[in-house]
Fold:
Amino acid sequence: MDYGGKRTGIATTDPLQIIASPLITVQTEDLMDFLTSYIAKEEVSELVVGQPTRHDGSFSGIEKYVLEFIEKFKAAHPTIPVHRINEMYSSKDAMQALIASGVKKKGRRDKKLLDSTAATLLLQEFLYDK
Structure:
């Protein structure tokens, strides 16, 4: 997940955990409801959440909201482990991926597409390092 103040991009992977793919971008206020519904329908073994890190190694202001969300998630889904991954440059890298894949400028303005692409890159990095 690429957690944001307004929107959260979500990615998923195949059962063998080889390839990450964008799933959806949801309004952050609806995130817990979406995940609870999704987990009821799909097998979810782990959750990967981006950790917003600055150049100096400190965390950005949204980290406190990410931590609050993680605590709520763990309370609701205690059997699903939560992992963190550094998300520095995730939006920039997502934009570059969209450009490289041929998405036109008008399509790249879609913040939902950018957020789900960033989540996909985070998940793919997690899978690669696993």
User: Anything to note?
Assistant: The mean pLDDT is 91.
